[in-house]
Amino acid sequence: MIKLLKKEFRLAMHPIAPLMILLSSMVMIPNYPYSVIFFYVSMGIFFTCLLGRENNDVVYSLTLPVAKKDIVKARIGFAVVLEMIQLVVTVPLAILSQSLNKTGNQAGMDANITFFAVGFIIYGCFNFVYFKSYYKNVNKVGFCFVESSIVIFVLVLLEVVATHAIPFARDYLDTKDPNYLTYKLIALAIGIVTYIFLTYRAYKISKYRFETQDL
Hints:
By secondary structure, the protein is mostly helical. It contains 9 helices and no strands.
């Protein structure tokens, strides 16, 4: 499994994928819907799968002495590592954003703890929608990305609307840290649990669909 994961990063990863992580710095832009940055990393994952299709990465992987389920596990593991790196990189930038943007973010959630809860939920939904569709037919990469992109932007829109229209979100969750820390930590825990559950379900469904394909 470790060797397959190394293969994902050394041979399969599209060069744009790590560059998308640098866009985490967009959390320092005043009055910007910060949740959009999660879309860019998902785009890096999509480009990696697209590059794999053009380079027959799946065919190559099938020639290796590994089980089909391990190929799926490595690709989803690759996505998880990228997503976690992006979230970790964003932490100091979010702290800096809160110190620079004194009036808060008027275009959505502040770069606070709740923002990371939203990030976990967005990534969990992306993994679930994208990979279960991708491993149904690994050649229809674009269709899978369109599906998952719609889900991401619906979630971003809901987050932005919630910060203005829902009193609890506006008055408690969309505030500077460490205000209302308990509520925010509960939201973060919900986000993490949602991410783990959806990503695990994505793996189980993807594994089944990939193993039943005649490739």
